[in-house]
Amino acid sequence: MMKNWKPLILAMILVMALALTACGKTEPAEQEKTDEKPFAGTTLELLVAYGGADKSFDAFTEATGIKIEWLEMSTGSALAKLQAEDGKTTADIWFGGGVDSYLNARDLGYLEAYKSPELSAIDPQYVDKDGYFSGLALVPAGFIVNEDILKEKGLEAPKTWEDLADPKYRGEISMPNPAISGTSYAIVSGLIQAWGEEKAWKYFEAFDSNIDFYAKGGGEPLEKVGAGEFAVGVVAITGGTFNVGETRPTRVVYPQDLIPWTPAPIAIFKNTENLDAAKALIDWYLSYDGQNILREADARIMARSDVDAPEIMSGLDKSKLVKFDLERMGKAAEGGSGQGDGHES
């Protein structure tokens, strides 16, 4: 009679063994979700003013499990919307754009202070001292020239800011309006800080007489010079600036006298409902891996000192960078933007 139980007992042992094996297989997955990806499944909303940043989002989601929904919006528009809504927004993160808008938003109480542990590798001049924003990358200002138009007009490419005030360039220059554009606002502030008020304003008067078109956005001079409408454009220099030259007769020129610059910032909005996940995003994008991935998404000189500059930007002489005090930026010009176009700042 007992012999009849043996097949049943063996079958029960086999079932129990399989069940224990299955339980053992699920444990590591649960552990990974808890310890390595504690915010997996969370969705963060980003307002983005950083060309090419979206090419890095999949890598971030793969690393953290955090999903990203994003909207491209200039920082000037974002700041105006924040002011109209008293700082209330469904967005969690502000990603890139004009740092002057971040300074205004900080002072209005719209940003959350957070000092990432990754800041130890970031140059302090790219970071708000109280942690309200950090620079992701360095964005230098310079020139883009159309070689065909220069040749047609019998002009050489400008080498310095002083060159742009030469009457021979009259009607051949386009730049964004400093009252709207964060890039141009940074140029105005940078040159004032480098030269002093008297010399700078005298220069701006001569320079202004040569400008035929003040654009409303940072990308417009780039397009117009590429299309042959102007010989020279004053622009923020990023990977996208160089990319135009792949299909059009344009060339990037770094000024040989002074190079104004601005950090492309990142910040957390004060009213985020996902603060810990937002901090995780800041940490990742300021980390060594995150900075390298973002640099591949759009070639820029990253904020971390241990991340190499992109090959196409090897011509930048960092000794020419203006010694820039971001806190003075809001006082750089009467009627200054305080908004920033955010296109590539």
Straight-line N-to-C gap: 85 Å
What is the string of helix and strand elements?
Answer: HEHEHEHEEHEHHEHEHEEHHE
Instruction: Assign the structural class, choosing from mainly alpha, mainly beta, alpha/beta, alpha+beta, or little secondary structure.
Output: alpha/beta
Shape: globular
Number of strands: 11
Average predicted confidence as pLDDT: 87
Based on the model shown, name its key terms:
disordered C terminus, single chain, 37% helix, 11 helices, 345 residues, alpha/beta, 17% strand, 11-stranded mixed sheet
Overall description:
This protein has 345 residues and is an alpha/beta fold. It contains eleven helices and eleven strands. It has helices at 5-36, 57-64, 75-84, 99-107, 147-153, 182-195, 197-208, 220-226, 239-243, 275-286, 288-297; strands at residues 43-48, 67-72, 93-95, 111-112, 134-146, 173-176, 211-215, 232-236, 250-253, 261-269, 301-302. Strands 1, 2, 3, 4, 5, 6, 7, 8, 9, 10 and 11 form an eleven-stranded mixed sheet that branches. The chain is globular. The relative contact order is 0.20.
Short description:
It is built from 11 helices and 11 strands. It is of the alpha/beta class. Helix 3 packs parallel to helix 4 and helix 6 (182-195) packs across helix 7.
